[in-house]
């Protein structure tokens, strides 16, 4: 009898040990793998209603230590509900950097929010009636769609000053531009303009310097620019126009055909890795640097102001965190891609050239005239331009001392 009781006790002890050291860890590991797999898949098949959270809640409940009895009060502004936004993109999802950075918002917000926040990416032209950048802006402002991804320069028709939150000819490089935006008052100035249009801007991507453009013939003097039809947009277009160029603000999908048909003689679009993807090298062989018109480019997630205000504090922080990471990722990725693209272009017979000094100096003089004219014509432009100039004057001291 005693031996039997001892045997039962030993069996129970062994069972507990096996359960605690072998079975339970395996069960927990399996649940972790299932959850991790779900979040790794991201929003490939996102729910259209409140996403299922039963399994997640069950796992968290099972893992909660029994001895924890205190629970902090939850503020109504910190509670999390499922949010689903539709985002129009100015760039196709397959386009390196420009499109992939927009797609990355969709994936990252899903993961950061634990599947409770979806920002659905829509290819250009796939949302009804959105055929231009102004259409996207108006749709966001009215609440017809929740958000749009583009550079602020695309919306110059709403306010010329918005171009200064995208890229500035002969303007600051990436680190200086970010310093002004985040700590020099740039972000506040931008949203003061956007608020008048019932929108909220979150800076949500950045790319490295662009190239100066593709030309069918070499540019040796300023006179070589006169009469050229060139795809170029924004403030850069106003600059080259002063030197006799006829700007043509074409979308990326139309540039190749325009070159092929002879409708344009030159084209500026982006950086080597992106231009290579669009095959401009097949029709124009002379590729000039630097991209004086866009030393760095910021991209914007434009959000309907009412949708933004409806978010909880935590949800706004998620959007800002994802967009801040997109700035970091885009700049780092862009800097890493260009050498390989340039090497490939060289092998394909592209002539990589730098601007003749007199031509570059002519561009800079023309830009100063453009900036003065724009500031005189528009109060917002003048206000933003004055802020940027003042910041750059102070920054120049640090730049001189701190840079090699």
Key terms for this structure?
51% helix; 2 domains; 404 residues; alpha/beta; D-Maltodextrin-Binding Protein, domain 2
How would you characterize the overall build of this protein?
This protein has 404 residues and is of the alpha/beta class. It folds into two domains: 82-208 and 296-335, D-Maltodextrin-Binding Protein, domain 2, CATH 3.40.190.170; 213-293 and 340-378, Periplasmic binding protein-like II (D-Maltodextrin-Binding Protein, domain 2, 3-Layer(aba) Sandwich), CATH 3.40.190. The chain contains 13 helices and eleven strands. It has helices spanning 2-41, 54-63, 98-112, 133-142, 174-183, 186-195, 234-241, 252-261, 272-277, 305-310, 313-347, 357-377, 379-402; strands at 83-89, 117-122, 147-150, 199-207, 213-215, 229-231, 246-247, 266-267, 286-289, 297-304, 351-354. The strands form two sheets. The protein has a six-stranded mixed β-sheet with strand order 7-6-8-5-9-11, sandwiched between helices. The protein has a five-stranded mixed β-sheet with strand order 2-1-3-10-4, sandwiched between helices. Strand 1, helix 3 and strand 2 form a beta-alpha-beta unit. Helix 7 crosses helix 12 (357-377) and helix 12 packs across helix 13. The longest helix is centred in the first third of the chain and has 40 residues, at 2-41. It is globular. It starts with a helix and ends with a helix.
Which regions contain 5 or more consecutive residues with pLDDT less than 50?
Answer: 4-32, 34-40, 44-79
| Major sheet description | 6 strands, mixed
- N-to-C SSE series? HHEHEHEHHEEEHEHEHEEHHEHH
Task: Enumerate the strands of the largest sheet in spatial order, edge to edge or round the barrel.
Answer: 7-6-8-5-9-11
> β content, as a range?
5-15%
Question: Mean of residue pLDDT?
Answer: 85
- What portion of residues is helical? 40-55%
Q: Briefly, what CATH class of the largest domain?
A: Alpha Beta
Which architecture name of the largest domain does CATH use?
Answer: 3-Layer(aba) Sandwich
Number of strands: 11
Report the oligomer.
Answer: single chain
Principal-axes geometry comes out as: globular
Gyration radius, to the nearest Å? 27 Å
Structural class: alpha/beta
Termini gap: 88 Å
Number of domains: 2
CATH overall fold name of the largest domain? D-Maltodextrin-Binding Protein, domain 2
* Count of alpha and pi helical runs: 13
CATH homologous superfamily (4th level) name of the largest domain: Bacterial extracellular solute-binding protein, family 7
């Amino acid at each position: 009898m005693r031996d039997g009781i001892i045997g039962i006790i030993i069996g129970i002890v062994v069972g507990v040990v096996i359960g605690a050291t072998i079975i339970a860890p395996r069960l927990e590991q399996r649940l972790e793998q299932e959850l991790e797999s779900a979040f790794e898949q991201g929003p490939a098949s996102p729910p259209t209603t409140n996403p299922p959270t039963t399994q997640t809640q069950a796992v968290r409940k099972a893992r909660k230590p029994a001895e924890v009895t205190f629970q902090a009060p939850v503020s109504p502004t910190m509670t999390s509900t499922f949010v689903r936004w539709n985002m129009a993109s100015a760039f196709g999802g397959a386009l390196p950097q420009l499109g992939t950075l927009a797609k990355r918002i969709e994936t990252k917000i899903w993961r950061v929010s634990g599947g409770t926040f979806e920002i659905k990416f829509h290819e250009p032209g796939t949302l009804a009636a959105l055929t231009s950048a102004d259409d996207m802006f108006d749709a966001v402002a009215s609440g017809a769609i929740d958000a749009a991804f583009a550079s602020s320069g695309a919306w110059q028709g709403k306010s010329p000053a918005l171009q200064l939150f995208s890229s500035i000819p002969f303007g600051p490089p990436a680190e200086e531009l970010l310093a002004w935006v985040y700590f020099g008052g740039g972000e506040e100035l931008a949203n003061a303009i956007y608020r008048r249009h019932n929108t909220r801007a979150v800076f949500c991507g950045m790319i490295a310097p662009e190239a100066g453009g593709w030309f069918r013939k070499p540019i040796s003097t300023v006179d070589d620019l006169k009469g050229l039809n060139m795809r170029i947009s924004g403030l850069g277009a106003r600059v080259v126009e002063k030197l006799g160029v006829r700007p043509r603000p074409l979308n990326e999908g139309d540039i190749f055909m325009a070159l092929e048909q002879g409708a344009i003689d030159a084209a500026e679009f982006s950086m080597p890795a992106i231009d290579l993807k669009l095959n401009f090298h097949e029709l124009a062989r002379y590729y000039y640097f630097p991209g004086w018109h866009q030393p760095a480019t910021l991209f914007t997630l434009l959000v309907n102001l009412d949708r933004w205000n409806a978010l909880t504090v935590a949800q706004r922080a998620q959007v800002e965190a994802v967009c801040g990471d997109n700035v970091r990722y885009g700049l780092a990725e862009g800097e890493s891609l260009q050498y390989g693209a340039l090497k490939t272009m060289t092998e394909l017979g592209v002539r990589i050239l730098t601007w003749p000094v007199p031509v570059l100096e002519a561009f800079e003089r023309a830009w100063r005239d453009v900036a003065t004219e724009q500031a005189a014509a528009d109060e917002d432009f003048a206000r933003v331009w004055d802020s940027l100039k003042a910041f750059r004057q102070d920054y120049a001291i640090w730049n001189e001392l701190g840079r090699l």
